[in-house]
Amino acid sequence: MRDYQLAGLNWLICLYENGIKGILADEMGLGKTLQTVSLLAYLHEFKGISGLHMVVAPKSTLGNWMNEIRKFCPVLRPMKFHWN
């Protein structure tokens, strides 16, 4: 991960540790998917929390989300839910 992605991941972990809700929002292509999958992996590996988690994303990116979770954190089992 790049430095700014690690900073974002650490920010997400800090939010979790302090019981604060947050949204990761920046320009496309900066690694929000990787940061989010990394947070879910952290929760699973270090906190023993395996889910259920809900990720809200544009319909056009659902396939990529599914692939990235399967690739980087295969212990989690993603499920796609969408409506038209």
TrEMBL record:
Gene3D superfamilies to which the protein is assigned, alphabetical: Tandem AAA-ATPase domain (3.40.50.10810)
Matching InterPro entries: P-loop_NTPase, SNF2-like_sf, SNF2_N
Domain SNF2 N-terminal as annotated: residue spans: 4-82
Pfam families reported for this sequence: SNF2-rel_dom (PF00176)
Protein name (database record): SNF2 N-terminal domain-containing protein
